[in-house]
Amino acid sequence: MPGPRDSGPDPAGRPQRIAVIGGGPGGLYAAALLKRLRPDREITVWERNAPDNTFGFGVVLSDETLGGIEHADPVVYEALKAEFIRWDDIDIVHRGRTLTSGGHGFAALGRRRLLEILQQRCRALGVQLRFRTEAPPAAELAAAYDLVIAADGVHSATREAHAEHFAPRITGHRCRYIWLAADFAFDSFRFEIAETEHGVMQLHGYPFAADSSTVIVEMREEVWRAAGFDELDEQDSVDRCAKIFADALGSRPLRSNNSSWTVFRTVVNAHWSHGNTVLLGDAAHTAHFSIGSGTKLAVEDALALAACVEEQLTLADALAAYERERRPVVESTQRAAAASLRWFEELALYLDQAPRQFAFNLLTRSRRVTHDNLRLRDPGFTGAVERDFPCPFGTPPMFTPFRLRGLELRNRVVVSAMDMYSASDGLPGDFHLVHLGARALGGAGLVMTEMVCVSAEGRITPGCTGLYTPEQATAWRRVTDFVHRQAPGTAIGVQLGHSGRKGSTKLMWEGIDEPLDDGNWPLAAASPLPYRPGVNQVPHALDRAGLTDIREQFAAAAWRAARCDFDLLELHCAHGYLLSGFLSPLTNQREDAYGGSLANRLRFPLEVFDVLRGIWPPDRPMTVRISATDWAPGGTTAEESVEIARAFVAHGADAIDVSTGQVVAEERPEFGRSYQTPYADRIRNTLGVPVIAVGAISSWDDVNSLLLAGRADLCALARPHLYDPHWTLHAAAEQGYSGPGAPWPAPYRAGSRRPPTGRTDAPRPRRTLN
């Protein structure tokens, strides 16, 4: 290896001497691009394996990635183009029935051939390739080279050697999988499910050459062990997989390449660079193979890194720009991959779905493929799914009716409960009439009030509404009368709750969860634990008398709500408020009959629910809002949330409104589009009960996708309805729908078409006049 840097970066500060650790696609492509941009660079790639020694078989690349390659290096693009196998279809085999969806557009080639192309390009450009050679330690390379690119894979030694700087977080998952190959070409991307005596197993298969296919076999860890795979050697495992999936393989054998069963590990790093060393590809991040992302991400990393090194004047600026550009893309991909991974982990939940719904569910599992773009790709398949739903002809899924007890909702859109902090002494006023009335006129099937508090001490802030006085009931009756009179067909629901330890705080825009400067009232909770120690006040733990008083406060509020003519009542057991505080082990540390086991933690919320169900009219539905996870270690788990939902349904809940978090201040939510919906999905498909999905559902396409896939029955949207009170009507107009699921109020009908934004009748240019 050369000694310390002799020449150093070029006068503009760009690196001249570059070391690449790892000869996979990402490392090779980065080396080729950087050398092509500046032929005088000295670039060396270290790879401990032989040139033709690779793991896995086929590689799938998207048109987007190929476009980037074509722009950056036409030579590599043309070589890849000559090798690609292309196809459009996805076949999903569900209990012996094959369902095909077309129009997807895949391109694949063998991983070995991809490496050959990149190796040839590197040699032609003058990159030094050192195979069968361990790279020197990254710190040693960093002292001798201007730039060190660590493309040394998921088990990156570079990342581990400098873990204190990169701060990696590596998460294992619940399935085992093995990479295999078959000596024939599937004619589609194929998903096949095997329901065995040991549990569910799945095959992912796709062609990568005219006579070869990649085959991945995956199953839950407990299924893998029950089937005895943990005791089989490599060849016996391969033979066993071929036998299980004989139908998919046409009774052909499978082959391996040092294949072993492994657990997928999601790699996340807080930082991607340290000094002049940068992580690339799997060393920096991984995303589950079920969305075909590993090589794609690595190649795109290489494109971005080379461009940033060329564009920026200093290496530090280049590495910072590379991470700024790539991190949002990678995080989005990792969210999609996590959704896909979890879907396959929970595959057994969906097997009883109707075949086409199951196929639609699988295709939209990552939330990147949606109802609308699937309809563009394959309108025949999507139309069949809609008919099975069933959607009347010309009716989007979101505009189909849904019944809860005696209440029929004309569509599946809910205006989520949103605290407005605009009441005076708990009294809703003109603001609430206009706010809720506008959203009722906006077309939603159900409009929910904010959390209406059952006592003055149960308010979150001085601006929260209540239902603990006759005057408040009169004011709420004004709202319900308006909705029923002016927006017939729209239901209005009331959400009852008590703030618990999260009360006596400022209005949201004055300091969310901050205690009042003065005028604080005492707080009550399951246990004497402040929301934030040293900031929020310590609540007193409720004794038997206190529990009885609060239960009676809920009962009185429900009695008033019924007389206000609300159509639905929801009990708020989420977000760390009083009843949620009983449910979570992080906030309930009682040692009596109301603490400890989940059954005990459920006791008081169920007592309250039972009282309300006895008061609430029997033909009107009741729902319960829960936090399905606390997003914190030791808190409520997804499995416990199913049991919580099961208990409320057994006591008469008609639907579960599934939210998450806001229970403890130290939570770490996994934010992203529709990020809470998997918890609703799990409850619905485990228990077979109606659920309301919430959580960053922002488009009508999301709503249609969730409903058709069977992940939710109703979708609650909050911020979109703040942005646009007529969100539902506009969603209907944008989809060309004008049926009974979204009727425009008579005074608004003239506005039911989007107004023109400019001239569209300008004279067209004529070539003959040029």
From TrEMBL:
Residue segments, region Disordered: 740-770
NADH:flavin oxidoreductase/NADH oxidase N-terminal domain sequence ranges: 398-732
Domain called FAD-binding: residue spans: 18-334
UniProt cross-references to SUPFAM superfamilies, sorted A to Z: FAD/NAD(P)-binding domain, FMN-linked oxidoreductases
InterPro entries referenced in this protein's UniProt entry, alphabetically: Aldolase_TIM, FAD-bd, FAD/NAD-bd_sf, OxRdtase_FMN_N, YqjM-like
NCBIfam families per record: PRK08255.1
Name used for this protein in its record: Bifunctional salicylyl-CoA 5-hydroxylase/oxidoreductase
Organism in which the protein naturally occurs: Streptomyces crystallinus
